[in-house]
Fold this protein.
Amino acid sequence: MSTEPNQTKTVNKRDLLVAGSAGVFAAAMVGMAYAAVPLYDWFCRVTGFNGTTQVATAAPGNILDRKITVRFDANIGPGLPWRFTPERTSMEVRLGEVVTVDYRVINQSARETHGLASYNVAPLNLGAYFQKINCFCFTEQTMKPGEKRDMTVVFYVDPALAKDPDGADLDTITLSYTFYPQREAPRPVAETTSPGKGGRI
């Protein structure tokens, strides 16, 4: 008796298994690619990795006598016609002290423009101790031609920094913001025609 039909069925099953496994693997890789960005963002926010600051909802329970200098840096990405500066370049704060600082933004173009700010803290390993209560980052800002606006940052440096051996000799932290251009969101166009044309208004 010929065994060719059985061999063919075996080969077909094997091919289907390989194809199915490849499909599952490809789908898993696509899923991981989409999940990588939010997972990385979550990891940075939890650990302070890469200078990512933390988000606080209230002031800490204590303020230490130890002081640290916080430097404020402002940058503009290519293609965004804004002027972006901090109200001061640096200030001395106590650990646990809540501080408010304004950044001034000016749209220097004759048209409405849009920008989005990202940030980081240096040294990078100390982002976990920089706690923001209020910030303008990651919120698209729309500026009219020539508009000036003050954008506020409220923060404190976590008193827990005093217990970190890596921060024992630290005397300066830099908070850096960069605004990047954003495309204008498409706006709905109302259907209008001139009177007497027989169309809708």
Q: What stands out?
A: The chain has two domains: 1-47, 54-181. The radius of gyration is 27 Å. The first strand starts at residue 54 and ends at 55. Residues 50 and 66 are 25 Å apart (CA to CA).
